[in-house]
Specification:
InterPro entries: AAA+_ATPase, ABC_transporter-like_ATP-bd, ABC_transporter-like_CS, P-loop_NTPase. This is ABC transporter ATP-binding protein. A hairpin with a 2-residue loop joins strand 4 and strand 5. It is built from 10 helices and 14 strands. Helix 3 packs across helix 4 and helix 3 runs parallel beside helix 5. Helices cover 34% and strands 30% of the residues. The protein is an alpha/beta fold. The structure holds adenosine-5'-triphosphate (ATP). Adenosine-5'-triphosphate binds next to strand 1 and helix 1. Adenosine-5'-triphosphate (ATP) binds next to strand 1 and helix 1.
Amino acid sequence: MITIEHLSKTYRKGVWALLDISLQLNKGMTGLLGPNGAGKTTLMRILATLQEPTSGQVSVNGIPLSRSEEIRSMIGYLPQQFRIYPQVTGRDFLDYVATMKGMKDASRRRKEISELLDLVNMQDKADKKVRTYSSGMKQRIGIAQALLGGPEILIVDEPTAGLDPQERVRFRNMLTRFSINRTVLLSTHIVADIESNCRRIAVMDKGRLVMTGSLEELQQRGAGLIWEAVLDQRMFAQADPRLIISSKATAEGMLCRMIAPERPLPDAVPVPDPSLEEGYLALLRGAAYA
Ligand SMILES: Nc1ncnc2c1ncn2[C@@H]1O[C@H](COP(=O)(O)OP(=O)(O)OP(=O)(O)O)[C@@H](O)[C@H]1O
């Protein structure tokens, strides 16, 4: 369990990458959702003990972040820009990381690496050079390196960026399997990444935690704010681009979904069941409507 209390971080005077974040992360997968620059990477790097907060406390199973050696043995981290030297094989790379993590016994290393390669379904490619891997395969090796040493907590920063749709689905399913007995924190700015596999979500925006709760609660944030109307070409071209959140060409014109605190056009009808994505957009726009 990770307990975060009043965590703040500033890189430059007056600009807060994190502002008074309090959050508890339990077993299972939590989705950390937020637009670019929300502070997700900063939060994850602090949890992985790679950066120090400006103020606030974090403990992992009761142990403070200042005991970084112990924390690192409990946490596996896959950074956003995960790079592997292209000339080595996946297996050799994992062996290198395991050695760096202090796993001295070569036969135990071999056994654990083999088990992890099975887990991420990379056993058959493990002896090929990394330069021959797809983005998805590199990410799977990335997860394997994060899991070396059997950490009970896994922190994964935007892992699906750059993956094709099939690899995305495979990767999400793999994370879901891992989260059964572990605490997993998955950051993303793509709602679909958390839709199928996160029971709990935390949404950040401009360094603040703007919501924690279930997917249903996020979806509900769109209630009363999403509208639908058919716009002809002229109306569509003239509409405020912030108003329209999706559109579909139909025989009658452009069928548009709009986001607004009040009926935006005389013909607009309220959407009774906004999607999760619409709930997320409504939440992010919330401050603008207040
Ligand atoms: N090393 C740094 N020096 C100065 N400012 C930084 C630094 N790293 C991040 N920031 C700023 O802190 C804020 C949060 O950035 P962060 O990378 O944590 O957000 P993020 O939610 O992970 O965004 P992204 O999805 O784009 O990675 C941004 O305003 C960013 O410009």
